[in-house]
Each structure stands twice: as C-alpha cells, then as structure tokens.
Design brief:
4 domains; 422 residues; 25% helix; alpha+beta; Alpha-Beta Plaits; five-stranded antiparallel β-sheet; 10 helices; single chain; 46% strand; Ubiquitin-like (UB roll); four-stranded antiparallel β-sheet; 22 strands
C-alpha cells in the first residue's frame, strides 16, 4: 500500500555532492525533511551520498542544500506526476485508453456466447433454437439470465433430459445436459394382448408376470408363435374349464435367434490430390450482422472448402461479439483407385462393428458371429450369420372368439328366454 501511495505522490532519487554533506543532513533534520535509504557511493570524483525523498519535499531540500553548499543532482524520477508530465501532449492516447477500458466494461455486462455440451438426441442447433424462443440469446444482459429458470424450463419441456446445468461465467453461458434412455411413462394398457415371437429361435429365458405361458426355456419357436397367451382359463371340478377371460400378457422373454448379415460396397474409391492452388476469404461479423465479407473468385473444377470460425476473446470466459470466419477453397485433382485387400477388410470390419454397436444399443446381445468377407474385382461383400440374444417378441391383440365360451350363457344364466314358471 505504501508503494502505491508513493507512486501516486512521486519519488525522487538524488545524488548529493558538496563540501559539507553532514551539515546538509543536520539542516534537513532540523527542518523535518525526511530522507530515505541514505547510502554512499564511491565515484571518480570521490564519495557521494545517495538518498530518496518524496516529490513534495524536493523543493524544500534545495534551500537546505544551498545553505550547506551542496548540490542535489536528480538521478531518477518515479511516480504518476512525472508520467503525466512526460506524456502531457498525448491526451488523445490516454482518452482512447480510458474509452477502451470503458468499452470492455460495457461489453462484459452482456452474454456474447452460449456453449451447449452433452446432447446427442437433441443437437446444439435444436437447443439454441429453443433458447431463442424462450428469450435467452446472445446480446442479452447478464443480469437478465436466470440459470435456475433455464434449468427448470428445460427439464419440463424435454422429459428425456435427466440432468441440466446452466452457469454464467464472464460473458459466456455454459449449458450442460445429460440425456437418459429411460422410457417415458405411459398410460397403463388394458387391451388384452398375446406375446408373439417375431423371429425363429429358441427360448433362453421366460419370466411370466401375467398371462398363460405356452413355452418354456429350451423350446424352439417359429415366427408368429404365441409365447405367452393373454387368455386365462378358469378350471373347475374334475379339471373342467368353466370360464375364460382375457388379460394383457406381461413377461420378460429372451430368445436365441440367428440373423443373416449382408453388407457390400464398391471397391473403387476417389482420392483428392491437392495441387496447392487455393483462394482464401474472410468474413468479419458483429453479433449476427456481417461487417465485412470477401471471397475471391476462382475457376477450379474440383475443389474443397474448409471453413474456420474464431471468436475474439479477452479470456476463455470473456468472449466478445466479434467473429472472424476464414474460408479456404483448395483445388484438387480426383484420382480413382481400388482399395487394397487390407483396406477393404478393415472397412468391412468397421461396418460390422457399427452394426453390432447398433444392436447392442437396442438391447440385443451378439453371442457369436460367423462372417466372411469376399474382396472382388469391383465390389467387397460381407455375408454371414449372427447368433443373437434378444427380446424378439411383440404384442398382438386377443380376439374375442379366443376367450369367450359358447356355453358361457348357461353358467351366467344370461339369455334371451324369460325365466320363471308359468
């Protein structure tokens, strides 16, 4: 704090030369003129004294030095008064600096960038469009951003987003979301249904909660076979069926099934041999408005366009509303060649891995794969079989004639004939 005060008031370093330096120090002491960091230094002209004093005391020292027949040579000046005196003719420069700091302060009061991470089903463009509809846009005041309200509204409007965090750092709004694969709550289905196999296979496991299971573990079934019936029989005395009623069958069933796999693609591919010829253009924008855009013309027949977008930032959490977009157009010569056998096999394996990953994401386990890849002259073909463990069943509505007995009216005494005696 003392250094800062000394800088604003100004400090002078003097070198004292004369015949009576001791008298000079005595006069300064009697007049209560403080001297700091007094030391001696040997020069070619003899021993001299060096001292530090404040600017306001320097003018008082001059009369004391004259009385002691000494000369205080100024060797160094430090402080704001000397800085202002040196640059007093550059008022426009300092005014510009003050205006620049004021402009930075003003820009720091607004949101200039929105970052969204964690979304897969809901893309960044979709969520940005949603935020614009709710009034959260780049250029709004920071004090108008209610992070808690943004989080609450997102969870209401997007039920499949399980977690969301909104945080404002500097002039950048960070929005992080976590989507869930939990099924949405549905109304209870009261329609009577069977559980029917959707593929040929063998029952691996069956846990029935409602309905009549018609198969057991290890049974071989065909597509369309009823696995769990939605019809429940009521058995009376002597094992006689006295009634039936329909329910919504419910069970956990997994089948081992065999699926044919086939994938093919052309062996020929096109490569780009760049010639080194390129044209570069720039676009400068402020917010959503373009300030300057330049893209030189070209006569390339085959070319690729690469766009780089950068945001001017003072800090990672302090982006400014100025963007620079660089667009490069590079010429290339197309060249058609054949994949080598190693490349073709690698591409076929990548396609198979993507398909297995897709099956896994749909709650299907691949137990084994018998796949063969054939690299032909013009095409690459992959064929084989996959042994899967999956929930290969679907719901099929129960028809009324499947559960209503013909003689049910006899037991319920519900008929059109009048009852009672004559």
């Amino acid at each position: 704090m003392k250094r800062l005060f000394d800088y604003f008031t100004g400090t002078v370093f003097v070198e004292l030369r004369g015949t009576s330096p001791e008298r000079f120090f005595n006069v300064c002491r009697s007049r209560k003129i403080p001297l700091y960091d007094v030391s001696t230094r040997v020069t070619d002209k003899g021993t001299v004294y060096v001292a530090k004093l404040k600017l306001r005391d320097y003018f008082r020292v001059r009369s004391a030095a004259k009385k002691a027949h000494c000369i205080p040579y100024v060797r160094k000046r430090i402080g704001l008064p000397f800085f202002i005196k040196k640059y007093r003719n550059r008022i426009a420069f300092f005014a510009g600096g003050i205006y620049c700091f004021w402009l930075i302060w003003l820009l720091s009061r607004f949101v200039w960038d929105i970052s969204i991470t964690g979304g897969f089903v809901h893309t960044e463009e979709e969520l940005l469009s949603y935020l614009r509809e709710t009034g959260v846009v780049c250029g709004m005041r920071c004090e108008e951003v209610d992070c808690t309200e943004i989080e609450r509204q997102l969870r209401i409007d997007y039920p499949d987003i399980g977690w969301v965090s909104a945080e404002l750092r500097g002039t950048k709004l960070f929005l992080r979301v976590a989507e869930t694969d939990m099924p949405m709550l549905q109304e209870e289905n009261n329609t009577p249904v069977h559980l029917v196999a959707t593929a040929d296979g063998m029952v691996d496991s069956l846990v029935c909660r409602r309905g009549t299971p018609l198969v057991k573990e290890g049974d071989v079934v065909k597509k369309g076979d009823i696995l769990v019936s939605g019809v429940i029989s009521v058995i009376g005395d002597n094992d006689v069926e006295v009634n039936r009623y329909a329910v919504t069958a419910d069970a956990d069933i997994t089948l081992k099934t065999v699926k044919n796999y086939s994938y093919s693609f052309s062996r020929k591919t096109e490569e780009h041999n760049y010639t080194g010829e390129r044209k570069t253009g720039y676009t400068f924008s402020y917010g959503n408005k373009k300030i300057f855009s330049h893209m030189p013309s070209h006569s390339y027949t085959n070319y690729a366009i690469i766009t780089e977008d950068a945001v001017l930032s003072l800090h990672k959490h302090f982006p400014l509303p100025f963007r620079v977009k660089k667009r490069t157009v590079s010429e290339y010569i197309p060249e058609v060649r054949d994949y080598t056998e190693e490349e073709a096999n690698a591409l076929a394996k990548q396609a198979l891995d993507r398909y297995i990953s897709y099956l896994t994401g749909n709650r299907t386990t691949v137990l084994s794969a018998d796949i063969k890849t054939t690299v032909g002259k013009d095409a690459v073909r992959t064929e084989g079989k996959l042994l899967l463990l999956a929930e290969a069943w679907e719901q099929v509505a129960v028809q009324e004639d499947e559960w209503r007995l013909r003689n049910a009216d006899e037991y319920s005494r519900d008929n059109d004939e009048p009852s009672g005696g004559a």
